[in-house]
From TrEMBL:
SUPFAM superfamilies: Histone-fold. This is Core Histone H2A/H2B/H3 domain-containing protein. It comes from Mus spicilegus. Residues 13-28 have a biased composition (Polar residues). GO terms for molecular function: DNA binding; protein heterodimerization activity; structural constituent of chromatin.
Amino acid sequence: MQFLKKERRFQSLGPTRTSSPARKSAPSTGGVKKPHRYRPGTVALREIRGYQKSTELLIRKLPFQGLVRETAQDFKTDLYFQSAPNWWVG
């Protein structure tokens, strides 16, 4: 018993090099060079590595303290915070 192979035809995704006429490009007359751009995400990863290496605070102390107090008030109303010394906070 013989098996017949199915003939497969693939559609071309665009014009082929042989079917399109050859174009002659005009000589460029001192075109402006594009500025260098990094691929998407490269600069973001570099910034993340820099933040991971640094020890600086990214959020200022007082606004963060206010946010913590406001969030704590949502859970329990009668909360008091003990003031910490400067070396403790950072």
